[in-house]
Each structure stands twice: as structure tokens, then as C-alpha cells.
Specification:
Four Helix Bundle (Hemerythrin (Met), subunit A), elongated, 2 strands, mainly alpha, Arc Repressor Mutant, subunit A, 2 domains
Length: 243
Amino acid sequence: MKIDPDNPADLSAQIAAAIRDAIISGGLIVDERLPSEAELAEQFDVSRPTVREALKRLAAQSLIRTQRGATGGAFVNRLSFEAAQPQQITTSTLLLSMNAVSFETACEARYALERACAPLAAARRTPDHLATMRAEIHRQSQPGLTDEAFCASDVAFHRALVDGAGNPVLSYQLAGAVEAMQPLMNMITFTARDRARIIALHTDIADAVEAGDGATTLAALTALETETQDLAQSVFAARAARS
């Protein structure tokens, strides 16, 4: 592991990148203890505070963990897809909030990704996934449910569908799409949507998943996308008319 002292990039960032690359390449394996701060400082020819900052960066990315005591130190962490999902969600939320991503673009991306999961969910879903989908449909039909609670239930329903595909890579990639994009779409359409219509479409999806019918699941999800896009267009048209 080496760094370039003439590189204008922050030295701690370079050290963190060097250690991260060693973990990715297999030079450092899961549960392996990293050299001590003093050893790393000597190896990279930097101060211990610089090393300490690099280790903080790696810990923030869940790439290492620290333990106290005589047998303590910094160890390579086993990063799971589930543990990485919050970072994916945070990054997706920031990207959507900081960039001019249109509703149509976000909706297109979110449903294109979820359609990849639909046939797999119909074939692989567990009773727990289906039970979650049914429970959220029941929750959505409750009188007096707030818009915020309905939106949260909407997200939970789609997360169950995605997770039902039984593919951790897809679940990880779609965590940001569902958790970040779905609330954005709900925020635009909640004033115009017919809850009964959404519940009916969710029921169609759940019925198809329960029957193991991938084609019908895909068709029901596409119908939900069309409903979402149509709602958004009506909202935008109403806003334009008022302006």
C-alpha cells in the first residue's frame, strides 16, 4: 500500500483509498487486523493523526471496525448488502435533491428497475414477503390514515415486492430507487391520487405474486406506473393552469 506525497489530494483520503483498495483486491481479508496506527504512520510516512483520520473514513464506510483491549485494534469488516443499503438510500436521496431530476425521469428509472424484480418475486417470494404486501394493503385501506402514513406503507409494499425477488444485489440497487424515488413521486401525486385505485393496483400485484404469475405481476406493475405518470401529468397541468 502506497500513497503519493506530491498528490494534492488529502493524505488521509489517500491512505483510506489505499487500504480500501487492499480490502477490495483481497490483500486484506475479512477479520484481518490492520497494522497499528504507529505502524501505518511509519509505512505511509505520515503523522498518527493523519492515519487516525483515514481510519475514521474507513469506519464511516463500514469497511473496518475497531475493538478495544489487549487484542483490539482495527479489523477488516464483512460488509453485507443489507448493511450497505442505508448508504445507497442516502446517496440516492442526495442526488435527487441536489440535481434537477424530472418526475418523468425518476419514475421511469424506478419502475424500469422494479420491473426486473416482478417475475422473480412471483417465482421466489416467501410467505413473509407476501404477508407484508397483504398487511400493507390492509393498512392503506384504513380510514383516517394520514398521507404520510399512506406513503410509508406504499414504500414498505414495494420493498417487500423487491425483496421477494430473492436477489440481494437487486435489493441493494433498488433500495435507493424505492426509498428515495417513491417518496418523491408520492409527494407530487398524493393530492390527486385515488387511494382506492392505488389499493386495487397493489392488490392486483399481490394476487399475481401469490399465484406465481410473473407476466401478470409485470402487467400490474406497468399499470401502476401508467397510473402514477398520469397522476403527475394532471398535477402539473393543474399547477400550470393556476400560474
